[in-house]
Specification:
The protein is an alpha+beta fold. It has a single domain, classed as Phosphatase 2c, domain 1. The protein contains 7 helices and 11 strands. Strands 2, 3, 4, 5, 6 and 9 form a 6-stranded antiparallel beta sheet that branches. A hairpin with a 2-residue loop joins strand 5 and strand 6.
Length: 252
């Protein structure tokens, strides 16, 4: 099975700089979207630190007999799930320490949406509110979990999904890499099927563009480059108040 992959990260129409970072490393099967926060360019520092730390560990853990598991090993998870969880925890530690060492970096952090691919099996892992979607046979499914206050309200039945979409606290995160001493990544494992498309994105896409519109744009035989361009254009048509970052992975 082969795949097409394409990613882009745009500043949007309102922000003065781009604090998002994307990483595509097909040789490692690693795909990342990080949405940094902290202001005054420290968000991009957090996103870059996290992406570099995750890539380093995924690379160094390829030889599974000669790798350290600094946070222990969870035998209930696959090896690759353990790899990506450890990588995210190491990224969290790196950003947390950087923020502790430099007062001007205090409060910085980053979301992480990561996919680790091996053959046609994927492990998806997220911290924060950057998302992973699976588009399969005309249907779009969010396979990640948002670490937001509003998402927790929906989960507890305190808000409907419709109310959540316009709630004034919808962007308040309950966890992000580097904003606290430890994080717990949400995991998702899936065997991909012919024709599947994975979409990793920051809230700069799904905030202004609803899932129905994203689904309609993905439901096309166009190249992944053209589809990504159309997704960014849709965010810009809706005002693009935030940085817009996208990675598309299509199985062919």
């Amino acid at each position: 099975m082969s795949f097409e992959v394409y990613g882009k990260s745009e500043i949007g129409l309102v922000r003065g700089n781009n604090e998002d970072r994307i990483l595509i490393d097909a040789s490692l099967g690693l795909f990342l979207v990080c949405d940094g926060m902290g202001g005054q360019e420290h968000g991009e520092v957090a996103a870059e630190l996290a992406a570099a730390a995750i890539r380093f560990y995924v690379d160094s853990s390829q030889d599974r007999l000669d790798v350290s598991w600094p946070f222990g090993y969870n035998f209930d998870l696959s090896v690759d799930a353990n790899r990506i969880v450890t990588a995210i925890k190491l990224a969290n530690r790196q950003v947390w320490r950087k923020a502790e060492q430099n007062l001007e970096c205090s409060g910085m952090g980053t979301t992480v949406a990561a996919v680790l691919l091996k053959g046609d099996d994927i492990v998806g892992a997220t911290v924060g509110d950057s998302r992973i979607y699976l588009f399969r046979k005309g249907k779009l499914t969010q396979i990640s979990i948002d670490d937001t206050l509003v998402a927790s309200f929906v989960q507890k039945g305190m808000l409907s999904t419709t109310e959540a979409a316009s709630h004034p606290m919808r962007n308040v995160l309950t966890q992000a890499a580097g904003s606290q001493e430890s994080v717990e990544a949400h995991l998702y494992e899936e065997r991909l099927e012919y024709g599947d498309t994975l979409l990793l994105c920051s809230d700069g896409l799904y905030g202004p563009v609803d899932d129905q519109k994203i689904c309609a744009i993905l439901d096309t035989p166009d190249t992944v480059e053209r589809v990504a361009d159309r997704l960014v254009a849709a965010a810009e048509e809706a005002g693009a108040p935030d940085n817009v970052s996208i990675i598309l992975l299509r199985y062919t």
